[in-house]
Amino acid sequence: MYLRLIDVNDFQTALAVADQFDLDPDLVFKKRWESSDHGSKAIDDFLCRIKCRKYTLSQIFAKVLPNPASIISLLQYGLRGTDIDVLEKLGTDNLADCLTWIPETNIDYTEDDSVEDIDHRRKILSKFNFSDLKTEQISLIKERTTILRYLARLKTFEDLNPRSPDGPFLSEQYRRFRDVDLVEYAALCARKGDVRSLEILFRHHNELDRHRLALLSSFPESLAIEKYLNLLPKIHPLTSIPIPIEHIERISDDWCNWQSVKRYFKNPESGCFLYEKYFPELEPKENLSTEDIADWYCFRAEKIEARTGIIELSLQLLNIAAENSLPRCFLDNKLASYKLDFKDLAELVYVWEIHHDVSLASFKTLSARAKINIILNRLNDHETDKGLDLIQGLMKDEDKKEPGSRMVIMKELIEEDGL
Under DSSP, is residue 179 helix (H, G, I), strand (E, B) or coil? Predict the structure, then answer.
């Protein structure tokens, strides 16, 4: 009779029967929840009254509702049932606590935590030995981490897909996006030249910071540097310290993301493909040094020239590196050397029309004398002055790289060529 009352939607009578005969009222509230719009009122009226922990979690994870407000309400309800107080209760031997949804916390997850909330959590956390948690407690931390990820991804998704107030929410696209490998997604955006999306991803997700240089290297080499100028790494002009990416503050400071908890729950390594398949010269780094950034500018400039042959783009990037406040020691050494090589190479390619088998990689292996020989072999009566000027420039550049080399080259030229 009880099940028949539920089937015909006579919920009031069904609840009375459940109360009279000590039956599980969850069946009534499950039916009402499943036939509702799953909004905030439905959560308060129906989902909040369901005691089965497994069912409640399945609804929180499975339901992707047609508007962000409802999604947020459902996920915030999930945070209430996976907070630190519940973690403590799951550590008891009471089986009912392990099977029952216990949304007892009164914290409003739409607001920043108060000092009292943080102190309360720290006090409870100090009681735990995280290397010896019960299976149910480990599951709770993983569940809470997933809910937090879904909330963070929702905010990112809305920025990636702006819509008018009346525009439809792309719920199925969000369903896929919330579980996607974020590094793979960011790399795909970069390879497509989607600067705006990569900028949003960097701003929202600090876990991408360690892959910053590899992701920037994923932009097509032919892409105009002006388009991703704002994403290029910079050095503070006063402190000579790399300027970090500015992140949007979000709920990532939740207790389950505190280092005292995270160290016991290692996430699978993400982003290895960037270095194994595309950029073996690079490596992921949590904190970039000034030298890392200087090395990357040179690496990127060389890749641009090698893959496009557009030397001006490489020179432009190195000029930007100088403008981005790299310390003088790097400008005078590594970057200066690269700029001279690119400048001389540009002369050979654009002025002397040497297009075949010329690249920065091969050009850098040539001695100064070999470069001068290329020019001498192409001199004619009309180009002698221009050629001699270029030779003088090459010798001057070589002398900057290796003091004294200019006199050695001049001596060789006088002895062998009679100049």
Answer: coil
CA-to-CA dists, residue 114 to 74, 79, 118, 128, 319, angstroms: 22, 16, 6, 22, 47
CB of 352 within 8 A of CB of 374?
yes
| Single-letter residue type at 214 | A
**Residue 98 contacts residue 90 (beta carbons within 8 Å):** yes
Tokens of 240: 């000579």
- Spatial neighbors of 247 by CB under 8 A, at least 6 apart, are 203, 204, 205, 206
pTM summary value: 0.80
Distances (CA, A) of 154 to 168, 177, 217: 15, 9, 27
- 140 phi, psi to nearest 5 deg: -60, -45
Alpha helices in 192-331 (DSSP H): 195-204, 212-217, 259-262, 272-273, 290-308, 311-323, 328-330
Structure tokens at 286: 């949590």
Give the H or E element holding residue 395.
helix 384-401
Rounded to whole angstroms, how far apart are CA atoms 419 and 411?
9
C-alpha torsion 170→174→175→177, nearest 10: 140
**Which residues face 235 on adjacent strands?**
242
Cα torsion 211, 216, 217, 222 to 10°: value is 170
The number of C-alpha atoms within 13 Å of 90 and in the hemisphere containing its C-beta is 24
**If you compute the radius of gyration of the chain from its CA atoms, what whole number of angstroms results?**
32
Look up residue 63 and give its two tokens. Answer: 């339901």
- Residue-wise pLDDT for 75-128, tens only, equals 999 999 998 888 888 887 666 666 788 765 555 555 556 677 777 778 888 888
**Looking only at Cα atoms, what is the longest distance across the chain?**
116
User: Is the C-alpha dihedral spanning 388, 390, 392, 394 positive or negative?
Assistant: negative
- Nearest CA to 250 out of 353, 110, 129 is that of 110
Tens digits of residue pLDDT in 7-45: 888 988 999 988 888 888 999 999 999 999 998 999 999
